[in-house]
Amino acid sequence: MEHEQALWLPFTANRAFWKQPRVISGARGHYYTTADGRELLDGFSGLWSCGLGHAHPGIVAAVQQQVATLDFSMTFQATNDKAIALAREVASMAPPGLHKVFFTNSGSESVDTALKIALAYHRARGDGHRTRLIGRERGYHGVNLGGTSVGGIAVNRKAFGAVLTPGVDHIRHTLSLPDMAFSRGQPSWGAHLADDLERLAALHDPSTIAAVIVEPVAGSTGILVPPVGYLERLRAICDQHGFLLIFDEVINAFGRLGAPFAATRFGVTPDLITTAKGLTNGVVPMGAVIVRQDIYDALMQGPEHAVEFFHGYTYSGHPLAAAAGLAALRAYREEDSFARVRALEPVFEDGLHSLRDEPNVVDIRNFGLMGGVELAPRDGVLGVRGFEVFLKCFEAGVVIRNGGDILQFAPFFDSTEDELARIFETVRAALRATA
Ligand code: PLP
């Protein structure tokens, strides 16, 4: 029996989990089926990833056909037709000037790829002393070493101190409950927080800084919505000093904010965009880094037979993932998903904010179909109450997520008002039961 519980779960309290396992064995549309036969309404679109719903017929058919046609082929010094087509489609949706697409297998790989492109770009231009990378407190950029380094979450960093990339610093995050609690959408207070980048520029000397990476709307640390004018100010400071600006849109891109990209929705164009999740509707793992044309051009140096950028993954542009991606992008178009998100956004916002007077709620934040309800910790111990509410909802047939004491919501793009109401009423009951 020693192999009975061989599975080691990621970002999970493993010992508690195996005392009360939650095992999903099926999914269709907006519902999961558990291994013991229960139906659960998914209020988190997988893990921010499946905005179109589970087992989307167009994606299922595309993947089935692809696996029978071309399962895999070399990705170095050769490619496949689906990867070419998907790159073209992604580039055509991207903000002006971002024309090149480098495929990865995850958000973490997208982030580390983007950081490496930024460093290589400066070096190729003869500016190789620009090696410093700037992240933001409470930023989540995945779990590879580069992303962990620029990430601003202490618990994700503390075990790995010595090998985190040296020469990384962080600007302060934008959340301030006294100044913005319960604001709907973008807080009006806080654009000046972008000036913290000026502080780091002065401290380190701007000529040492290669790139700045932020999530436009931070997800994992609890829906931190950029204050009005904040992203514009970051862009201006980056321009002034020659820093590349990277938007980590692993959650934000492909509809979650009611637009192809956060960059589109906020009208601020970064130099690189990292994506994953919604690219394939979460069906086959895939990420992409979308890059400004002239950054790519700067790297196209040396003899033509030689590799220009020494980086890539065996599965960069995997045909199965690319087929899923093409089908997902087609579905977003055909179902007018991004407009639907915009139409649903006020309904979602009202429902979320209806929880304001429930026990222990200290803030509610939302943008697009991303929502967060922050709770006061139970007895000062972080995360206990949030986890209790998550469990109560799961038992009552609704899946949301807790990041510590912040409840997180990411409903499907075609959620019905009844489904949203059921999610919020289940959470309301759970908040009262755990008061
Ligand atoms: N960046 C952001 C903003 C994310 O939200 C995530 C995952 O949630 C990642 C990177 C890492 O993505 P993955 O888990 O696919 O490696």
From TrEMBL:
The lineage of its organism: Bacteria, Pseudomonadati, Pseudomonadota, Betaproteobacteria, Rhodocyclales. SUPFAM superfamilies: PLP-dependent transferases (SSF53383). The keyword Transferase applies. Belongs to the class-III pyridoxal-phosphate-dependent aminotransferase family. Its cofactor is pyridoxal 5'-phosphate. Its EC number is 2.6.1.18. It holds the Pfam family Aminotran_3. One of its GO terms (molecular function) is beta-alanine:pyruvate transaminase activity. PANTHER family: ADENOSYLMETHIONINE-8-AMINO-7-OXONONANOATE AMINOTRANSFERASE (PTHR42684), BETA-ALANINE--PYRUVATE AMINOTRANSFERASE (PTHR42684:SF1). The keyword Acyltransferase does not apply. It comes from the Bacteria. One of its GO terms (biological process) is biotin biosynthetic process. Keywords: Aminotransferase, Pyridoxal phosphate, Transferase. InterPro entries: Aminotrans_3, Aminotrans_3_PPA_site, PyrdxlP-dep_Trfase, PyrdxlP-dep_Trfase_major, PyrdxlP-dep_Trfase_small. It comes from Azoarcus sp. (strain BH72). It is an enzyme of class 2 (transferase). This is Beta-alanine--pyruvate transaminase.
